[in-house]
Q: What sequence folds into this?
């Protein structure tokens, strides 16, 4: 398999698991727009890391394979979240469990 296909395949695998890590950062009280921005930003960073780890830094010289890998991570992460992690309740549970609890003030 070529480096591009290896990178895209790895990107798809990373993207499928990325919503669990994104849920650790996100907070239930955030707006839907804020959550989407964070999810896409984390997926973009995950894509860049995937390109560097699979194809090496020289792969960044080739625009199309780099964009294909980053796109695969973003697409896989959004699809996995919508199809698996959100309906199963796992991602929302992780999000709630890792959010700081609001401090209550005693009277």
A:
């Amino acid at each position: 398999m070529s480096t591009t296909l290896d990178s895209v395949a790895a990107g798809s695998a990373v993207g499928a698991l990325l919503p669990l890590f994104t849920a650790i950062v996100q907070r239930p009280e955030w707006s839907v727009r804020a959550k989407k921005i964070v999810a896409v930003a984390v997926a973009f960073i995950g894509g860049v890391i995937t390109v560097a780890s699979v194809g090496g830094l020289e792969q960044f010289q080739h625009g199309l394979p780099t964009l294909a890998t980053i796109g695969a991570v973003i697409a896989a992460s959004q699809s996995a979240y919508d199809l698996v992690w959100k309906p199963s309740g796992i991602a929302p549970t992780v999000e709630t469990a890792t959010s700081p609890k609001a401090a209550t003030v005693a009277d």
Remarks:
- The chain is about 75% helix and 0% strand.
- The chain has a mean pLDDT of 87.
- Helices lie at 3-25, 32-55, 63-88, 90-97.
- Residues 3-96 form one domain.
